[in-house]
Amino acid sequence: MTFRTPILTSAVLAVLALSACSAVGADEASSDTGGSIEMAISEVCTEASEAGCVLVNGTSVLLPSAFEQAGVTSARVADGGQNAVEVTFDQGGAEILHSLTEKAAGAGETARLVTRIGGELQAAVVVMEALEGDQAQIGLAPDESAQDLVDLISRDLKR
Predict the structure, then answer these.
(1) Is 7-20+32-158 a domain of CATH 3.10.620?
(2) DSSP-H helix ranges across the chain
(3) N or C: which end of the chain has fewer CB within 10 A?
(4) Mean pLDDT in order along the chain per 10 residues (159 residues)
(5) Of 21, 19, 14, whose CA–CA distance to 2 is shortest?
(6) Quick check: 143 and 65 in contact, CB under 8 A?
(7) Where are the domains of the chain?
């Protein structure tokens, strides 16, 4: 399987795949702002069997004790009718994404990359291989708002 840009899902892990960066159409009401996404590596657990076991969109994981903050230079609603957010990380953020996905991929089938955006746990995804580059796409469930996620990512810049 060949990857071009990582897709991280907020509600359901659809696929880790890469897509070409696309611009938001002129008719899209979307912001293009920076911010951050927090990430950490965790392990699956059996809900309520261990202290610190939390449910993140259907996956029970141990709540990480620390997250790394990956800087984002832009986040925007994906073009093309997808319910997704396209994210471009700054250099440090891209390095964090690569490092953590490399660790998660090498840690075995119970490892998960946990993301927290705007203080809210968003996803706990399986990582098949280390992700390269500075662009990712976060896929959302049909009932979730891509613009709301863009706003969460960029919220810390408005303070």
Answers:
(1) no
(2) 91-106, 146-154
(3) C
(4) 40 30 34 80 85 90 95 93 92 97 96 94 93 92 92 73
(5) 19
(6) no
(7) 7-20+32-158
